[in-house]
Amino acid sequence: MSDHALTLPAGAAAAIRAHGSETYPHECCGALIGRDGAVVEAWPLPNTTEEGPRRRFLVRPGDYRAAEQRAAALGAELLGFYHSHPDHPARPSQYDLDHAWPFFAYVIVSVQQGQPADMTVWWLREDRSAFEAGSLIEERGEPVSPEAAPAGPR
Ligand SMILES: [Zn+2]
Fold first, then answer.
1. Å from CA of 110 to ligand 1 middle
2. What is the Å distance from ligand 1's center to 115 Cα?
3. Is residue 132 pLDDT above 70, yes or no?
4. How far is the CA of 139 from the centre of ligand 1 (A)?
5. Which residues lie closer than 8 Å to 25 by C-beta, 6 or more apart?
6. Which domains does the chain possess?
C-alpha cells in the first residue's frame, strides 16, 4: 500500500458506478477532475470509439485533450481516469499497466452481471513496473436516515 489517497464525493462515486452499469458488458471510461487529491467531478468519456464500443481501457489523445479542457473550464486539474472491469475484479490488467501514465490516479470499478461491485484506486510506480494500490476515500452523501433528518414542523 502506497501513501497515495484519492477522495471521491458521493455524487462522483455514484456517477462512476452508474456509468459502469450503463455501458455493461462494455467498459466505461472517464476523467477524474479535481485538485489536491480530491475529485470534484467524474466526467464520462464517450463509450463508442472509431473501433466500436470500448472493450479495453484506452485514453486516446482526443479524450485527453477534452478532459484537460473540462478541467480548465472547472478551474481544476486532471487528476486521473476511471474505467470499469465488466465481470472482472477491480485490479489493473497488464493492458492497463502498459497504457498508464505516471502521476495519474486510476480508479477501477468492477461490474458483476451489470451491478457495480468493488471500486479501487491505483498509481503507477515511478519505474512503471507495476501499479500500487492507494486509498479510495468515499465521502458520504447527505444523511438520509430519519434520525439524522432535521425535525419538521409539528
Ligand atoms: Zn482495466
1. 9
2. 17
3. yes
4. 24
5. 86, 87, 114
6. 22-47+54-133 (3.40.140.10)
